[in-house]
Design a protein that fits this description.
By secondary structure, the chain is α+β, with helices and mostly antiparallel strands. It has 2 domains: 77 residues; 129 residues, Beta-Lactamase, CATH 3.30.450.410. The chain contains 9 helices and 11 strands. Helix 1 packs across helix 9. The radius of gyration is 17 Å and the shape is globular. The model has no long low-confidence stretch (mean pLDDT 96).
Length: 211
């Protein structure tokens, strides 16, 4: 899928993770898993049980864009998840967690082989969006049949983290007509995906991080 390659050029998570040593790869995977297992990201005491130096480990993961830190150096997110409330909520393993964006929300089920329920909203109308996924990532049910995933590639800025730029322009749109109108207003920058296409996109981008 061309979109997967395009996003990897912007945010090469898999490539950067693969260049780390074994302990840091394990730490990154455990931080991702902590959202699903605990409903939050692991704290520094928990991280200390996995690495020799917590500060250096967090610094390396952050420099490689695998973590998002606050201005005070606290971990606020690890793509695809965030501790900050956003429009895209995921109920998984009896926990409520937040995704960075609409694409990221679709990754939780296939990454951890658990069923998940996504609650979000249409970025045009504000109407609710509800998506239920099987453990495979396949969509079991949705609030309507014509939900689209929409991305404005032009939103990315080199000087701003992806979490605060492109992620904010990766959303759901209810309805074929609304989706096409949104796309046609700036077709050179904007791209649309059906829900099944978006699941495949999300899985191909994020699942390798847990392998």
């Amino acid at each position: 899928m061309r979109a997967v390659s395009r996003l990897k050029e912007i945010l090469p998570l898999e490539q950067r993770q693969s260049q780390l040593d074994g302990k840091l790869i394990n730490l990154h995977q455990q931080l991702l898993r902590s959202f699903v297992d605990k409903g939050r990201i692991s704290n520094r005491i928990e991280i200390a049980g996995l690495v020799d130096d917590v500060d250096i480990a967090i610094e390396v993961l952050s420099e490689n864009k695998l973590l998002v830190l606050s201005q005070h150096g606290e971990i606020t997110g690890a793509y695809p998840f965030t501790m900050e409330p956003r429009d895209h909520e995921i109920r998984i393993n009896h926990h409520l967690i937040h995704a960075m964006c609409a694409l990221d929300a679709l990754a939780a089920a296939p990454m951890f082989a658990r069923s998940a329920e996504i609650n979000s909203r249409c970025c045009i109308s504000g109407e609710p969006v509800r998506i239920v996924q099987l453990a495979s990532g396949e969509v079991e049910s949705a609030s309507r049949k014509d939900i689209h995933f929409a991305i404005d590639w032009g939103a990315f800025h080199q000087t701003t983290s992806c979490a605060e730029s492109l992620c904010l322009q990766m959303n759901y749109i209810n309805g074929e007509q609304a989706a096409r109108q949104w796309h046609d207003e700036d077709f050179e920058r904007r791209e649309l995906f059906t829900l099944s296409e978006a699941v495949a996109f999300s899985s191909q981008f994020f699942v390798p991080l847990m392998n």
